[in-house]
Amino acid sequence: MKGSRINRRSLLKTIGLGAFFINTPWLSASTLISDDDDVSFLRKEHKLFNVYRRLFNKRFDVQPQIMAICKTERGVQKAVNYANEHNLDINIKSGGHSFEGFSLNDNGMVIDLSHMNGLELDDYHKLVAGPAVRLAQLYSYCLPKGRLLPSGSCASVGLSGITLGGGYGLFARQFGLTCDYLTGVRMVDINGNILDSDDLPELLWACRGAGNGNFGVITQLRFNTVEAPKTLYQHRFRSFKLSSKKAVGLAKLWFEQCDNLPNHAFSAFVLNGKTLTVMLTATEDDESMVEVLKNFDRIMDKNDNLNPDPLEVGVKYYYGRSDALYFKNISAGFYKNFSDIEECVETLFEITANTKGAVFQINTLGGNINNEKWLGEGAYAHRKANYLGEAQCYWEKSEDMQQGMDGMKSIQNALYENNVKEHYVNYPDVNIIGYESAYYGDGYARLQELKRKLDPDNRFNYAQSINVS
């Protein structure tokens, strides 16, 4: 799906104290605590309160006491200081894509960073970004300059959130995760002080995979970039009216083919009800893909015969919807190979087929994500995995919600019973048992130690945040 055009008028070159912001002179003083060039504090009664409170997932209706609309780093400091004065817990919202609504809280303060979306690429190909840069904005800014920051594909996702949790997508097998290119951050801590990871290397380690909203408010991210490939080669195959047993057979064949994919290729196995779509992309046109494509053409019902595109054009086909939806989306586990889910995969597919609006998807990892040079450099704990599953369910009518929620919980239970217990922090699910080890592996104690130093009273918190004890 084509993404919407990103308006980058008046983007400032400096991130942080001079970050880009949109002035909002129509804010009504009667429903504001204060309003200046750095931050606006909105009460519940303000007409824009619900605009800023809105999440990508419409399932959540959470009511903070204050929305702090921060336009600069100084504004973030003012917001944190206000929260301290009034003993308010703090949650952080940049892209608003947290699957479990962790960007909001009840009766606390939410720091909204949506105005802090500046970008600057210097002559040495170093990228400096505000926390609320969206992925469509990232690609439209970097690709015409011949540079790429490997990241996800959903247009409206915020760069800080995806980076802090890891960040994979079409280019991860070729280049690595988004967090692997993170070289530094600035953060406002719970005392309103500005910290830089150049002075606190442990903070950079944590920001490479520990997720968002645990230690403070990230106000600036610094990245290395790579030379952007010129072309995106795209292939899509479909099969229809599948029984669960037939889908299992195709899944096994898909794993076999993907075990041999070149690093410049990515694939997704997407079972939507009883329809299977196998998507493959690549940035090179070489013989290593020929046999794989022939095999899929042979076993699937339809080959969509997509044409290659310039990378700037091709990425837009994967931007997805940007409007808010009702859904439940969960991590369905990390796998090394098909054997990790072989005993339960038919059950997973049966639940998917019998749950209205359900999708079960498996994405390729491996390649340079598993490169040993990244080991120990960040909190991302799943370098050995070659695949990542996710389950999704969408609905429009409220009466369909419970069936969808039950279906996703049944999938999670089936995975747990079959010892699939490692999960992706950017795909959170409140039903995950033992999220501390599921998301962070052996790194949780180390993250707790940093949490105790930076936020000893646990003021930055949500249902699955890093706890001090």
How would you describe this protein?
The strands form four sheets. Strands 13, 14, 15, 16, 17, 18, 19 and 20 form an eight-stranded antiparallel β-sheet that branches. This protein has a five-stranded mixed β-sheet with strand order 1-2-3-5-4. It folds into three domains: 30-112, Uridine Diphospho-n-acetylenolpyruvylglucosamine Reductase, domain 2 (2-Layer Sandwich); 119-228 and 442-454, Uridine Diphospho-n-acetylenolpyruvylglucosamine Reductase, domain 3; 231-440, Vanillyl-alcohol Oxidase, Chain A, domain 3 (3-Layer(aba) Sandwich), CATH 3.40.462.20. The model is unreliable at 1-30 (pLDDT under 50). The chain has helices at 49-53, 73-85, 135-142, 159-165, 172-175, 201-207, 244-258, 290-299, 311-314, 345-354, 401-417, 435-440, 444-454, and strands at residues 32-35, 39-42, 66-70, 90-93, 109-112, 119-121, 126-129, 147-148, 182-188, 194-196, 217-224, 226-227, 231-239, 265-272, 275-282, 302-303, 309-310, 326-335, 358-364, 387-395. The chain is α+β, with helices and mostly antiparallel strands. Its cofactor is FAD.
| Named CATH topology of the largest domain | Vanillyl-alcohol Oxidase, Chain A, domain 3
CATH-scheme architecture of the largest domain: 3-Layer(aba) Sandwich
Mean model confidence by pLDDT: 92
Could you list the spans in which at least 5 consecutive residues all have pLDDT below 50?
A: 1-30
Class from secondary-structure proportions = alpha+beta
Q: What count of helical segments does DSSP give?
A: 13
- Nearest-angstrom radius of gyration? 22 Å
| CATH class descriptor of the largest domain | Alpha Beta
Instruction: Report the biggest beta sheet as strand number plus sense, adding barrel if it closes.
Output: 8 strands, antiparallel
Number of strands: 20
Helix content: 10-25%
Principal-axis shape: globular
What is the straight-line distance between the termini?
45 Å
Number of domains: 3
What percentage of amino acids are in beta strands? 15-25%
